[in-house]
Amino acid sequence: MERLVRHFQFNGEEQLVIEAVRENFPVLREWIAGIVDELQFQSREKKQILISCDEIFTNISGYAYGESIGKVSVKAEYLPSEQELHIVFCDDGIAFDPLKSGTPDIQSRLAERKVGGLGLFMVKKMMDDVVYVRQDDRNILTLIKKSKTENK
């Protein structure tokens, strides 16, 4: 049985493709915010999605390409039967599986904590699922958020 999937376009294209530089995040944010509004996600869900997208885009732009500038492509799909929004980030930067990053120390005093990992920890907590695969020398990270609102 074929699953019904609603694909969202960016300027007539099946995905948003931009240079992975921090200054480009507002383009991604505006597009995702429009999708989330159209799907009538709750305010809290919208904030969680946007914060998670910010964290993932920031990590790609800051680490995936080292000193170089690469591109990131983002697809957005909605599965009505599961009421799930899937946001898929793809880059051909350095291989990195964020799901293998350990749990950061959130108990110690701030001055004693190791730097890094807190953003990915938050993403894993805010999203319903996060899936990573390395395929054809590309990082593919999917953020999944279930909607609490009925009838999309």
Written description of the protein model:
By secondary structure, the chain is α+β, with helices and mostly antiparallel strands. It has a single domain, classed as Histidine kinase-like ATPase, C-terminal domain (Heat Shock Protein 90), CATH 3.30.565.10. The protein is built from three helices and six strands; from the N terminus they run ββααββαββ. Strands 1, 2, 3, 4, 5 and 6 form a six-stranded antiparallel sheet that branches. A hairpin with a 4-residue loop joins β3 and β4 (84-91). The longest helix has 22 residues, at 43-64.
Which whole number gives the mean pLDDT? 88
Instruction: Quickly count the helices.
Output: 3
Structural class: alpha+beta
Overall shape: globular
The largest pleated sheet is described as: 6 strands, antiparallel
Instruction: Bin the strand percentage.
Output: 25-35%
Short characterization:
This protein has helices spanning 25-38, 43-64, 118-126, and strands at 6-8, 16-19, 71-79, 84-91, 129-135, 138-146. By secondary structure, it is of the alpha+beta class.
